[in-house]
Amino acid sequence: ATIEGQQNIEIRPKIDGYVEKIFVDEGATVKKGQRLFQISAPQYEQDVRTAFANIKIAQADVNAAEMNVNKVRPLVDKNIISKYELESAEYTLQAKQAALAQANATLANARTNQGYTLITSPANGVVGTIPYKIGSLVSSNTAEPLTTVSNIGNIYAYFSINEKQALDFSKNTKGATTEARLASLPPVSLVLADGSVFAQKGRIETASGMINTQTGSVSVRATFPNPGNMVRSGSSGEI
User: What span, in angstroms and rounded, lies between the C-alpha atoms of 104 and 59?
Assistant: First the structure.
């Protein structure tokens, strides 16, 4: 069997920049939301400041347009000036309000990009190798991920059975469906690479619906609890 964690998540940057800080080491156990990397990208901080300034300008334009509407409306009500003047002032106000909404959207986008400079763990797990060190230039197109976080609270052991074994299983195991047959199977044991038997029992939960035409086998998955993260993703063993 080949063993994988229930999640193997590649950590990749969403922006271009330099690795400024690395908060964890290889093999460290991390919690969801824990800081992993800081990417140096000053342009995104500048975008936020620029967006704030544009919002102030847009808000001032809205205030001026509102003042103009409030000034024109009573004059129209008294028939001193034509209704056209009021409609023109209202249209100008609507345009300024739209510009303010656009400026707010630009700020939200700038803040989102700025947030990408801090990379946190998306799940509980164990940190893999860290190929890029402080000062490395990285981007969303970088070939290797910054690292991989493996959630190994539960582990999946993948193994294969041949076509004859699959037919025997279908014929001789109680149940009308594959799921029912798998549920009726007894717990299984995992023999680790050093020959020792893993302390936790597992359950066979899934079997592929197709036979691999190249190998003539069916892929099967057993799930084991993994307290203490004793078994790591990438290990091998026997069921």
Answer: 10
